[in-house]
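Teaching assistant here, posting this on the class forum so everyone can see the example we discussed in section. The complex has three components, and the goal was to see what a joint structure prediction looks like when all of them are supplied at once.
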Amino acid sequence: MNEGKKEGSLLDKYGFPIWLFPLFFLVVVLFAACTEWDPQFGVDTVTTVGGHHVRKQVSNTWESGNVPYTMYMDAAAMCVLGFGFLYVFSKYYVWSGVSTNFFVCGFCFLWVHVAKAIVNAIFEGEFHKTKLNLNEMVTGCYITAAVLISLGAFYGFASLSQVILVCLVEPVAMLINEHIVLHYLHVKDAGGSLLVHCFGAYFGIAVVCGMRVRAEQLPETHRTTSYFSNMGAMIGTVVLWMFWPSFNGVTFYNDVTLQGRIVMNTYLAICASCTTAFATSILAHCGKLEMLEIQNATLAGGVIIGMICPFDIQPWTAVLIGGLGGVVSSFGYAECHPFLEKLGVTDSAAVQMLHGIPGWLGAIFAALACFGSNHNYMYSYETQWSTTEDHHRTRAEQFGFIILATVCTLLISTVSGLITGVLMNQPCCPRVDEKDMLIDHDFWNIEDIGHDPRIKPSHYNRNV
Amino acid sequence: MNEGKKEGSLLDKYGFPIWLFPLFFLVVVLFAACTEWDPQFGVDTVTTVGGHHVRKQVSNTWESGNVPYTMYMDAAAMCVLGFGFLYVFSKYYVWSGVSTNFFVCGFCFLWVHVAKAIVNAIFEGEFHKTKLNLNEMVTGCYITAAVLISLGAFYGFASLSQVILVCLVEPVAMLINEHIVLHYLHVKDAGGSLLVHCFGAYFGIAVVCGMRVRAEQLPETHRTTSYFSNMGAMIGTVVLWMFWPSFNGVTFYNDVTLQGRIVMNTYLAICASCTTAFATSILAHCGKLEMLEIQNATLAGGVIIGMICPFDIQPWTAVLIGGLGGVVSSFGYAECHPFLEKLGVTDSAAVQMLHGIPGWLGAIFAALACFGSNHNYMYSYETQWSTTEDHHRTRAEQFGFIILATVCTLLISTVSGLITGVLMNQPCCPRVDEKDMLIDHDFWNIEDIGHDPRIKPSHYNRNV
Amino acid sequence: MNEGKKEGSLLDKYGFPIWLFPLFFLVVVLFAACTEWDPQFGVDTVTTVGGHHVRKQVSNTWESGNVPYTMYMDAAAMCVLGFGFLYVFSKYYVWSGVSTNFFVCGFCFLWVHVAKAIVNAIFEGEFHKTKLNLNEMVTGCYITAAVLISLGAFYGFASLSQVILVCLVEPVAMLINEHIVLHYLHVKDAGGSLLVHCFGAYFGIAVVCGMRVRAEQLPETHRTTSYFSNMGAMIGTVVLWMFWPSFNGVTFYNDVTLQGRIVMNTYLAICASCTTAFATSILAHCGKLEMLEIQNATLAGGVIIGMICPFDIQPWTAVLIGGLGGVVSSFGYAECHPFLEKLGVTDSAAVQMLHGIPGWLGAIFAALACFGSNHNYMYSYETQWSTTEDHHRTRAEQFGFIILATVCTLLISTVSGLITGVLMNQPCCPRVDEKDMLIDHDFWNIEDIGHDPRIKPSHYNRNV
C-alpha cells in the first residue's frame, strides 16, 4: 500500500484495485455457484388465491425468542466498531487502523460463505451450496473476528493487497481446523477460546514471521501512541468488553439454559479481568497505569472463559478464572512482550497476550474441568450443548482430546500463517517499506497528521 | 447562529431561543391536539376487583418476537450516533456538526408525529390523532433520517434558526411525497432508496440553491478536515454501516420471511460496497485512499439496495448491486462532485453522491426487476410485502409507475427544498456570514479550536 | 493514585494493587458464600436416558419476548460507553476519565451481587444467596449507574484506591435506601429519578464535602476542556440519550403495556429536553452555546421523567415535563453551579444539575400527579405496576409518602456520602495532591498529553 510513494511500477501504485476488482467479480461468480437462500427466506412462493397473489410464509429462526438477531448485531459491532477502534491506538496509523479493519470486515463477511462451501466440500466429499441465514451471518462474525485478531499481529506492516491474501487464506485454514476439532476430536468451543482467539493470534504471529518483518527495523517514532489515538482505542475496548457476553452466547439459539449460563459466566469473567488488569498494570509499572494494558488485558476474561463458559461451574469460579486472565494478560504485556520482541518474535499489537495465551489457557482450564468432581461436567464433551451424539469417553480421554485440539490448533494456525506470510512477500504483491510502516502519510490523500510540522492541512474542497 | 459576533440586533443574537421557545409551546399544544396513545398503551384501565385495583393488559406489538424494539433502537442509533459523528469530519466544525445533528433528532422525533396528523388530514379529508406506538417511533426515525441527509447538503452553511425551518417543512413535504408514491402510484420502498435517501439529498441541494450559498465564497481554510475530526467521522460511518440491515428491515414486523431476506440482502450489498469503495478510491486518487470516500461510499450499498431488498433476488445479485453502488458513489465523490461544484451546484458534504444518485439508481434497479424472468417478482408491486390490495398491472406498467415515483420524488423534493431555502434567507431568520461558515468559533462559548494560535484554552470552572 | 510521583511510601506508590488484590480474593470468597445460579440456569441436570446423557431444560426469563436482554445491554452500554465517554470532557483527564469509569463498572457489576445478599440479610433477618440471573444483571446496572453519577461529583479529585472505597460503600447504602423507599414507604420509582439519580448525585457531593476538596485549590489550567476531549464526551452524551428509554423500561419484564408507555414517555421527554437545552444555553450565554450544557442538560428529560413515566399521563405532558427538565438543567449549569461553587459546594462535573435537581423534581411531579383528576393515577402507588399488594391510601397520603421518600433519599445519600468522604481522607488510603488533580500525567505511563511542550511522545515499543 506504499503505492503512492514510489515512482515505481503500476503494480506498486494500483496493486490493490488490480487485485481487488477481478477478485470481486470472482466473488460474485462464486456466490452464484456456492450460496443460496435458506428455504425459509427463499421459498416465498407467490400463490394465486382467487385472483389475489398471496405469499406463503414458513416459520424461521428469525422469530425465535432467544434474541439471536440482537446478539448477532452485538457480535458484528465487536468486529466493526470494537476491533476497528481498538486499532487506532497508534499515533500515526489512526486512519489505516480503523479502515483496514473495516475493509477486512466487508470482504470477509462475504468471503466466509464461499470458504464454507469449499471446506465443506473437501471434508464431506460432495458439494453443497451454503444456505444463507442468520446462523451463517454469525459464523461470518466468528471467522472475521479471527482474521481481525491476526491483523493485530502484523498491524501496520502490510499493504492492503497483502491483507486481501490473509482474508482469502485464513478463513479456509480456520474452517479446516474447526472441522477437525469439532467433528474428529469432538471438542466443543463455545466462545472460541481456541478456534477463534488462539487460532487468530498464532496465525498472525506466523504471518509476521513469514513476512520477515522485525520490530527494530521500523523508524522508532512510528511505534508511538498519542493522547487522542488512545482515547479512540478506548472506544474499541469498551465496545468489545460490553458485548462479549453476546459473542460467546450467540450460537446457542436453541438452548436458553446454556445461553443464559454462558452470558453470565462471560459477564462475571470479564468484570473480573477488568478489575485485576488495572491492579496488575500499576504493579508492573511502578505505580502507574499503562494504556495499552488497560485497552487489552481488561478483555482477557472474555477470551479465557470462552471454552469453559457453558460448563456448570459456580459463579465464583468464573470470577476467579476471569481475574486470572486479567493478571496473566496484563503481566504478559508488561514483561513477556518486550522479552519476546527482543528474541525476535514480532507481534505488532501484542495479540498473543490478549488472544493467544488466554486462548490456550482457557482450553487447558476446560480440559482440567473434565476431572472436576461435579457430575455435570464429568464429560465436558457431553455437557457442551450437544448431547445427542454417542461418545463414551473417560474423563482422562476427554482431557486428552482437548489438549490434542489445542496442539492441532497451534499447528494448523502456525503452518498456514507461515505459508501466507511467505506468499505475502512475493513480488506480485505490493509491500510496504519499513520506513513507511505504521504511518498513514503514504497510504492516504492526507497532508496533516497530527502536529507534524512538515505538512499543511488538506482541503476537501476538491475543485480547488 | 452567528448571533454572538455582531453588535447587531437582538434577533441576531437571540434568534434561536426567540424562535424555539414559542415553537416548543406550540409543539406541546399541537401534541395535545394531534396525538394520543395507541390504545395498547393507554387503555390501562384500573378496574377494582374485590377491593384490589387490577390493571387489564392488552396484547401489543411490543411483545412481538420479530425484534422490533431492537431494530428500532439500531435505526435510532444510526440517526443520533451514526449521522451525528459522520458530521464531525470538518476540522473546525466538530462541535456544531454533532450538535446540530443532535438537535435535529430531538426536535424532529417530536415534530413528525404532529406532521403526520396534519398530512393525513390533508389526504384523508378528516382529522385523526396520531396513535403513538412503536411503529410511529420507527416512522420518526425514517423521516428524521431524511432531514439529517438534507443537513449534509447545507452542512455548515445554516444557523440553528434556519435549521428549525427545515425541520418544520421537510417532514411535511416528505410525508406528502410518501403518501403519493405509496397510495396513488402504489410503489413500495422498503429501505427508503427513494422516499428517504433520494428525497433527503435533493431537498438539501435545493435548499443550498435557495439560500444562494456558493462554495467558493467560503474562506478556503474552513473547508478542511483534520486527522482527528476524520477519526471521529469514522465512528459515524461504522455505526451506520453495521446497523443498516436493521434500518431497511425495521418496518417488517409481521413478515419474518421478508424481514430476513431484507436484512440479508442489505448485509450482502453493504459488504460489497465497502469492498469496492476502497478499490475505486485508490484508482481515482493515483494509488492513495481519500478519507471522505471511505466514510461515505462504503455505505452506498445500503442505499442502492433499499428498494429492491425485499425482492426475491439471488444473493449474488445483491453483492453485485451493492458493489456497483460502492463504485458509483466513490467515483462520484472523486470526479463528479468537484465538477458539479465548478458548475455552481453546491453540496457541502456531497450527499448527492451517497444518497442522491444511489437512491434513484436503486429505484431504477427495482423498476428493471419488474422485467425479470422470475415469476416471484413478475409484478414488483405484489412482491413487495403487500399482496392484499387488488392491482392488476403488466410488467411494463409497474416499471412505468416506479419511474413515475422517481420523477415525482425528484420534483417534490426539489420544489419544496427550493422554497425552504428561499424562506431561510428572509430577514426574520438569523443567517451565517460566509466568513463564519464551517467554523465553530462563533457559535460556541469556546476559546480553543484545535491549534489555532489566536486563542487560549477555555475554563469550565465558570465561577472564575 | 498519585503514587508514581512522590518518593513516598510503598502505600503511596502501590496502594491500589495492595488494596485491590486482597479485596479481589475476598470478592471471590464472598461470591462463593453469597451467590448461586438461579435454578433456571443451574439445574441443568444431565439425566441418563438409554445410555445417552440428556439435559433437561427449564423455562426461563431469557426467552421472554419483552426484549429483556436487549434492554439490559442498552443499559450496560449507558454505564460503560455512555458515562465513560461523558467523563472524557476534561482536557488533561481523558484517559483517567474513561478508565476510572471502566474500572468502576467492572468492580461494581461484581460487588452488587454480594452487597445485595448482605442488605437483604440485614432487612429480612435471615441470609439468602443472591440468585444470579438477568434481573440481577439489570440491578447491577442500576446500582453501578448511581456510583458512576457520584463519580462525576468528585471527578478528578480521587485516587483509584479512594474510588474502591466508594464502590464498596455506595451500593450498600443505596440498597438500604431502596429497601426503605420500596418496602416501607411503598413508593415506586421506575426509572430511578430518586433511587438512582438523586441518590447518586447527593452521595457524590457529600463525598467531596467529606474529602474537603475545594475547587479553588486546583491549578486553574487543569479545569479545562479541549476541542477533542469535548468531541469524545459527545459520544457519551449521544449514547446515554438514545438508550435512555431502555434504561427506564428494562425492569418491566412482565408488563408490556407499562413497558411500552415508559419507553414512549421517556423518548418524548428526552427529545423535549434536547430541544429546550439548546435554546436555554444560547439564552444564558449571550447568544452562544456552552458545550458542557449541551452534553448534560439535553439528558435531563430522562431523569425528570423517571418516576412518572409509567403513569398514564398524556403524551403532551411528557413533552412538557421533559422540556422543563432541559430548561432547569441548562439554567442550573449556567447560573446555579458557579454560584454554588462560590459558596463552597464543589461538584466537579456538576452532577447536581443533571441528576440531583431533575431527580427530586421528578419525584415532586410524581407526587403532584397523585392529585390528578385522572382516575388512573388517583393513587400513584397503585398505578405503578404493582397493584397486588394491599394498601389503602388517600391521594394526600400518597403525596406525603413520595415527599417522605425524597427526604429519606436526600438524608441517607448525604450522610453515607459524608462518612465515605471522611474515610477516603484517612492515611491508609492514598490521596491525590491538589496540584495533581484532573491531570493524567501522574497516573499514567504517559509522556505526551495533548500539546504540552514539556513532554515527548511515549513509545509503546517497550523493549527499547
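For the discussion questions: Chain C is about 60% helix and 5% strand. Chain C touches chain A through 86 residues (CB under 8 Å). Think about how each of these relates to the inputs above.
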